[in-house]
TrEMBL record:
Species classification: Bacteria, Pseudomonadati, Pseudomonadota, Gammaproteobacteria, Pseudomonadales
NCBIfam families, per database record: lipid_A_lpxD, PRK00892.1
GO molecular function: N-acyltransferase activity; UDP-3-O-[(3R)-3-hydroxyacyl]-glucosamine N-acyltransferase activity
Pfam families per UniProt: Hexapep, LpxD
SUPFAM superfamilies the UniProt entry points to: Trimeric LpxA-like enzymes
UniProt-recorded name of the protein: UDP-3-O-acylglucosamine N-acyltransferase
Length: 351
């Protein structure tokens, strides 16, 4: 699929200041390094400014302060990266599905599927499920008993929704994601693990996006809840009864233990882990590979662990770390000795 749009139309859509030919055809997006005639690019970070001089882009999204000295066509905007994100959808080559049900799909008699929905090959929709208008369900998806998908949802091939999963509007779920699997609930009875039923469900708000192979477990009693606008990357695990506030985002390989509560507008970088039954307040940023072992009650940035070092230096640091208890004891003895000498000197001076 190809699309052509005038530079002036993009300027109007963005509310940008146009500098250049409003009738220039724009056919795609590219980086400053790789852009050619017909493609629009952007400058969002100072380290890429060196590519601006020689770029072959048809036009560039720029902050007004970055436009000085650039003689090519440009759209001047407060936030070039945000502007790029907004116009990227004009050039998205993702195939559009037509409304209707593929003849190989299996749909229960009492399932409700809106005529404007698109149901792909070999999809299964079980009893009592409800599929709203303009939903796309890819090939080999499974929609369990009583599960619901709100208007405009998009499920890539091989998404699994167990029973009683309720999804809001315009939700995007990528391949391999599993929502509503049983949570990890066991009780130890004299050395033998006894399973307890996970009788809750999963509830997602509107405009949620879920990445490839991410798992969201059903609640043990009440639902696991994901708020509006939450963005989850690939290979994330959300355990039972977790609650995630609106517009929180998590990068790949995050693991959230059961019954943790995460506030609104938080960001968790890759590989972050949370223990269960803790609360994270609104507006928290947690850096990559951090292990969160207690509640966070103040907004801000939090980190743990050790950063990368050359191997030889890391081995020395690790060796010192093993000696830290002994070093602490020696320091305490030294402090006491210094205190004793200081007290003796003070007594001598007084005498």
């Amino acid at each position: 699929m190809s699309i052509t749009i005038k530079l002036g139309q993009l300027a109007e859509f963005l509310g940008a200041t146009l500098r250049g030919d409003k009738d220039k055809d724009i056919t795609g997006l590219a980086t400053l390094e790789e852009a050619g005639p017909g493609q629009i690019s952007f400058l969002a970070k100072p380290q890429y400014r060196k590519y601006l001089v020689d770029t072959q882009a048809a036009a560039v999204l720029l902050k007004p302060a970055d436009a000085d000295g650039y003689t090519g066509d440009a759209l001047l905007v407060p936030d070039p990266y945000l502007a790029y994100a907004r116009i990227s959808h004009f050039f998205d080559p993702k195939p559009k599905s037509s409304a209707g049900v593929h003849p190989t799909a299996v749909i229960a008699e009492d399932a409700q599927v809106d005529p404007a929905a698109s149901i792909g090959a070999f999809a299964v929709i079980e009893s009592g499920a409800r599929i709203a208008a303009n939903v796309t369900i890819g090939a080999h998806c499974f929609i369990g008993v009583r599960s619901e998908i709100g208007e405009g949802g998009w499920l890539a091939p091989r998404v699994t929704l167990y029973h009683d999963v309720r999804i809001g509007k315009r939700v995007v779920i990528q391949s391999g994601a599993v929502l509503g699997g049983e949570g990890f609930g066991f009780v130890n009875d004299k050395g033998v693990w006894q399973k307890f039923a996970q009788i809750g469900g999963v509830t997602l708000g509107d405009d949620v996006e879920i990445g490839v192979n991410t798992a969201i477990d059903r609640g043990a009693l009440s639902d696991t809840r994901i708020g509006n606008g939450v963005k989850l990357d690939n290979q994330i695990h959300i355990a039972h009864n977790v609650q995630i506030g609106d517009h929180t985002a998590m990068a790949a390989c995050v693991g959230i233990s059961g019954s943790a509560k995460i506030g609104k507008h938080c960001m968790l970088a890759g590989g972050v882990g949370l223990v269960g039954h803790i609360d994270i307040c609104d507006g928290v940023y947690i850096t990559g590979m951090t292990m969160v072992t207690h509640s966070i009650t103040e907004p801000g940035s939090y980190s743990s662990g050790t950063a990368m070092q050359p191997s030889a230096e890391w081995r020395k640091s690790a060796a010192r770390l093993r000696k830290i208890d002994d070093m602490a004891r020696r320091l305490q003895k030294l402090e006491k000795a210094v205190e004793t000498v200081t007290c003796a000197d003070n007594r001598s001076s007084d005498g």
